[in-house]
Amino acid sequence: MRNCNKGSNPFLSAVIFVINVKVNLTVNKIIIKNSNLKMKKLSTILSITGVMLLGTVQTFAQEAAAGGDEGFSMQLLKKYFIEGGPFFMGIVLLALILGLAIAIERIIYLNLASQNTEKLVSSIEDALADGGVEAAKDVARDTKGPVASIFYQGLKRVADGEGVEAAEKAVVGYGGVQMGLLEKNISWLSLFIALAPMLGFMGTVIGMIGAFDSIQAANNIAPAVVAGGIKVALLTTVFGLVVAIILQILYNYIVSKVDSIVNGMEDASISLVDLLVKYKK
Questions:
Q1: Beta carbons of 148 and 260 less than 8 angstroms apart
Q2: What is the DSSP string of 251-278?
Q3: 50-89, pLDDT tens digit by residue?
Q4: Could you tell me the residue ranges of all domains in the chain?
């Protein structure tokens, strides 16, 4: 049996551990709000997947470390990380960990918030025709998701006798609230995207300053004198750009997902107002 403490990569293990904890916390919050069987099954699947991912990455790190200098191993990545300097590289790693945690939490939340709006509108229309506003309100209350929550607020105004205009205002106002929930923490993700390469470039400048200090101290411009500072400069730039690229891809996916959900919310809200006008007639 190989000793895990010798082969495991602490940096990669920290990344996966934080992401796994964030995912499990997000899913548990959703389960508390949504007690249906489908959500519970999804929670179980995601929890098992997180544990398997953590174990798989740790095993891969052990195998890579045991493989010596063959190819681009995790030991080589760790070596470059340490050579880049603990201060700037540590902050870049922290930006990666926090950015990945936020991105994965948002992806899970947005995928769970997605729903078939056409089916919901059809159910509301059937409920209005069969049982009136109260029946439609019950359908919206029993359906999970941001669109159903918006529908419930609008139908509640009609049920209270406030009219279609009040319902439309409630739909618009509560739609803004739901949009804010969908976009929660995305600004932090954009901050980490901008911060990672800037820290890398700052490390580059500091590395070049160190290289010129070495030239001044040695009074010699030999390659061996400046190689260390230039290497640090390049490593910090590379790691900062890699982190920014990874987070930027996830950010674009999240933004496109939010736009898709918001467009569905707007179309469904228009359909609800049309149904209410038709019902009042």
A1: no
A2: HHHHHHHHHHHHHHHHHHHHHHHHHHHH
A3: 554 455 445 444 544 454 444 455 676 666 666 666 777 8
A4: 1-83
